[in-house]
């Protein structure tokens, strides 16, 4: 007796995957995010909260904080002439160092873009100072170069730039300009994204190299210029190591290199006025935020994005 088997219908679709509950998926995400969250809370948010509290106190690192309200802020703005000299030195440094650094970085990036051989070598060589320039050892070498009897003095007979109030700040600014490698690499990446057809069309129309630079390179590179400008401006306001090394931690001569962060360090860790230093830190944070907001606001008139036909930020 033969048995007839009924064929089983073929599966036309795969079994849908089992979805985990939303709460379970979120729990797994928080497990992986927990190291960053703990680090942000313990190493950033908590110290910021403590610093904000200390800015309203008289604290010397050894005794309990004594609440003084706004006295640190009023003393800072009305009774401390060195504070305003540090503000002036920092603003002068930012105005000198940032444009020179970005200008040199752009010039070198343009040269490397058209280089056929050795581009990788020169790109690495120009980038190296950005890795070394923030170290104390390089800053001390820089001080020796511009010191009396140093290499620069022997070549030009300057008598030592670091002992002249008019040139000591320039010495620190030149060290920053020398570290143009990081913005240069960013500029080079941006230049390589500009379509070559634009330059070919401009050449057909008879545009000169300078005209191509102004009408094609600058507008197409404006987002990268804006990015580097914001980044380097924020870093310039926080400069510390070069000024500390060149001036020996004193901000001299005649407070010409008394940058804001150097004076903050002096008030907090040398004079043990940690409450006053905390107030200075919060003022610096507010100023950097305000300057960054102004840069973003003004970028509407000169930063061009490909998605914006009018050339402004929307």
UniProtKB/TrEMBL annotation:
Residues 1-22 are annotated as: Disordered. The keyword RNA-binding does not apply. It is a multi-pass membrane protein. It is found in: Cell membrane. Pfam families: BPD_transp_1. The keyword Transcription does not apply. The chain crosses the membrane at residues 29-56, 91-112, 124-146, 166-191, 212-231, 274-296. This is Sugar ABC transporter permease. Residues 1-15 have a biased composition (Polar residues). GO terms for cellular component: plasma membrane. Residues 87-295 form the ABC transmembrane type-1 domain. InterPro entries: ABC_transporter_permease, MetI-like, MetI-like_sf. Belongs to the binding-protein-dependent transport system permease family. GO terms for biological process: transmembrane transport. Keywords: Cell membrane, Membrane, Transmembrane, Transmembrane helix, Transport. Its main location: membrane.
